[in-house]
Write a sequence for this structure.
């Protein structure tokens, strides 16, 4: 017995947790944690997704093309790219989209939040908590649950199809609004399904709250948009719980992308401070008071405070945001009056424009410089996953240090889960992150 | 039924946005039925379980852009009985093939601070430039019903029914008014392969060609009509140089309008 024990101790002294290809995330990434004498010596969240150079080939394209082109950065959150780029171009040209067109933009964003969040909750994240490799295995034991998730996801996609033409890379959004706006009666067809969706979302909040959560919290700097009246989708200041409150045009005055010693990845940080968290937990914690009372109550009943510091509980926050999206979509449809024109027509003018909206995974910032003919001279895109990359690594480091007693397999699985808490979208991030190419 | 062996399906990703493989998960009504007839053996976006090859069907998303990927695709071909490319990246090089018309070294230094870390090929190329491909599903993204048609054809041992005619036919079948004739909107429908269901004209905009060139397209004639409709040479060049920029008929037409 003694020798086996001694071997175990020796093994514990220096070990490595390595996942070559992370599953149930969007894109290609891996992770590596090195441990020596019960201390984590190195953490890497690797990105090996091939770069696609969007910022480079946007140069020379027309300003009107940015929404369609940037949508192709991500198949899961194309609307976020269409919205941030449209707002940036409108900002450059001095245009503001209001009234029913603004409401329709919120409505299509509701569709994307529902579709993306439900995919993550049911198919990518929940199997971790329940010990399944995937949702299909999970369906063998929990068929009704998985079917409910698929049905809920479909309602998000149906909103995308109705307003966008299709669920992936919608074709209908454009600068100034939409190519075609729906009749009120077309939208009203969604009211019944959305009523069911609200119930299912509430059920999802209750169910996710009952999952077993690891005991782990961190005092994050939450960064998100904040709007004077609304829970944020498209507009607001960039704020944090540690004192940031700035117009979106000042993004680069307060955030920077840095090289760090243990990684060749560019990582976003708050200037002069450290890593920060973008995404559902940040939005929720910064904007709890902007949620309708009944949703605040649902969060309370689920045992979620006004602030969520346990990243594993982001699954409950996503469920709350699905509930909010159903609620908001119904409000928009009930109050909708078809606008006279589907879009505001405008021409280009020389200048710089900023757009920042809340993608399902968090803040998505775009900046463009265009000439007087509307040709893009310069493009800068900062997606949520590159902003969260440093926070992911910090979580891994702290989580592993607290949980060294776990078996290697269990710890490896939980490390994967630490990454999946962020619903990382690696295809998005890698066009902007530096590649880590390891020669071993 | 239980005695019949399910075909093993694998899904592979190269340079892409994930949208085409997401189409499989977007089959909300059909997904569980699909898994009754097909064994999902390797699909990292959906599962951490990996069943070893060889595979009966491989779906390949994305284009080849790195030396490593140019090697990897051969391994995948060797372990696949049928190999199907899905989406404009895999079938034509995708939007990232815009690099093929530029100097990639400039691109690297535009996006990355330390270009020496980036290993990338000068061109983004379709899968069929590297290996033999059995079938292709077009689109940016693919149409999920075409994906279901493909899977059901494979399960039933028949050839998939995938049209090669133009978007115009789908548009007429839908009863749309021609946006080019009636409203003078630039439209790539006449030269673009059907499959999407003529979505763009149905939403009052011209087709932007995300399903790539149809069989034997007359791009020159369409370009002449676009020029009459007051598109500049640059506009016409950009119009053909989109999500299927490197598909040969579109590539040649865009190059013909380059300054």
């Amino acid at each position: 017995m003694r020798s086996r024990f001694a071997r175990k101790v020796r093994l514990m002294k220096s070990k490595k947790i390595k996942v070559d290809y992370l599953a149930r995330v969007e894109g290609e990434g891996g992770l590596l944690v090195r441990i020596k004498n019960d201390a984590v010596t190195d953490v890497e969240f690797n990105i090996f997704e091939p770069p696609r150079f969007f910022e480079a080939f946007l140069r020379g394209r027309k300003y009107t093309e940015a929404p369609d082109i940037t949508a192709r950065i991500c198949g899961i959150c194309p609307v976020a790219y269409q919205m941030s780029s449209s707002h940036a171009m409108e900002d450059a040209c001095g245009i503001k989209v209001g009234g029913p067109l603004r409401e329709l933009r919120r409505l299509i964003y509701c569709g994307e939040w529902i579709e993306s969040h439900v995919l993550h909750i049911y198919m990518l994240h929940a199997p971790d908590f329940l010990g399944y490799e995937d949702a299909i295995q999970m369906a063998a034991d929990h068929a009704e649950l998985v079917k409910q998730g698929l049905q809920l996801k479909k309602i998000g996609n149906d909103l995308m199809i109705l307003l966008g033409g299709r669920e992936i890379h919608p074709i209908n959004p454009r600068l100034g609004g939409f190519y075609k706006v729906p009749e009120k009666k077309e939208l009203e067809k969604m009211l019944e399904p959305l009523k069911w969706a609200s119930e299912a979302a509430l059920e999802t909040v209750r169910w996710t709250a009952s999952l077993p959560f690891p005991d782990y919290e961190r005092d994050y700097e939450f960064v998100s948009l904040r709007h004077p009246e609304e829970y944020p989708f498209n507009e607001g200041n960039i704020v944090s719980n540690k004192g940031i409150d700035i117009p979106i045009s000042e993004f680069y005055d307060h955030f920077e992308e840095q090289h760090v010693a243990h990684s060749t990845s560019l990582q976003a940080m708050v200037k002069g401070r450290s890593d920060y968290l973008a995404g559902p937990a940040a939005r929720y914690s910064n904007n709890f008071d902007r949620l309708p009372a009944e949703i605040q109550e649902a969060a309370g009943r689920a045992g979620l405070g006004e602030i969520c510091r346990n990243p594993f509980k982001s699954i409950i926050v996503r469920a709350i945001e699905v509930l909010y999206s159903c609620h908001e979509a119904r409000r928009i449809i009930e109050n909708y009056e078809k606008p006279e024109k589907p879009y505001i027509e405008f021409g280009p003018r020389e200048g710089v424009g900023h757009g920042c909206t809340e993608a399902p995974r968090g803040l998505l910032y775009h900046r463009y410089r265009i000439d007087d003919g509307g040709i893009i001279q310069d493009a800068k895109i900062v997606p949520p996953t590159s902003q969260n990359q440093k926070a992911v690594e910090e979580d891994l480091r702290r989580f592993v240090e607290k949980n060294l007693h776990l078996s290697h397999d269990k710890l490896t699985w939980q490390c994967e889960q630490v990454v999946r808490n962020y619903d990382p979208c690696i295809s998005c991030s890698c066009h902007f992150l530096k590649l880590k190419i390891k020669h071993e | 039924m239980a005695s019949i062996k399910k075909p093993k399906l694998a899904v592979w990703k190269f340079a892409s946005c994930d949208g085409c493989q997401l189409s499989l998960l977007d089959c909300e009504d059909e997904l569980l039925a699909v898994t009754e007839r097909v064994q999902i053996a390797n699909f990292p976006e959906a599962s951490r379980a990996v069943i070893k090859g060889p595979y009966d069907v491989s779906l390949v998303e994305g284009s080849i852009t790195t030396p490593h990927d140019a090697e990897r695709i051969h391994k995948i071909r060797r372990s696949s009985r049928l190999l199907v490319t899905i989406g404009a990246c895999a079938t034509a090089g995708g939007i990232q093939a815009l690099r093929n018309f530029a100097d990639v070294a400039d691109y690297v230094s535009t996006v990355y601070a330390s270009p020496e870390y980036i290993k990338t090929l000068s061109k983004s190329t379709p899968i069929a430039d590297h290996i033999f491909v059995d079938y292709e599903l077009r689109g940016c993204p693919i149409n999920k019903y075409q994906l279901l048609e493909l899977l059901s054809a494979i399960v039933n041992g028949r050839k998939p029914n995938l049209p090669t005619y133009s978007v115009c036919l789908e548009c007429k079948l839908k009863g749309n008014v021609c946006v080019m004739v009636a409203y003078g909107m630039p439209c790539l429908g006449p030269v673009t392969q059907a499959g999407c269901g003529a979505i763009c004209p149905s939403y009052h905009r011209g087709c932007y060609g995300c399903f790539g060139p149809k069989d034997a397209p007359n791009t020159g004639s369409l370009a002449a009509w676009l020029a009459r409709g007051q598109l500049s040479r640059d506009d016409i060049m950009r119009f053909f140089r989109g999500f299927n920029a490197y598909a040969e008929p579109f590539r040649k037409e865009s190059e013909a309008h380059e300054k």
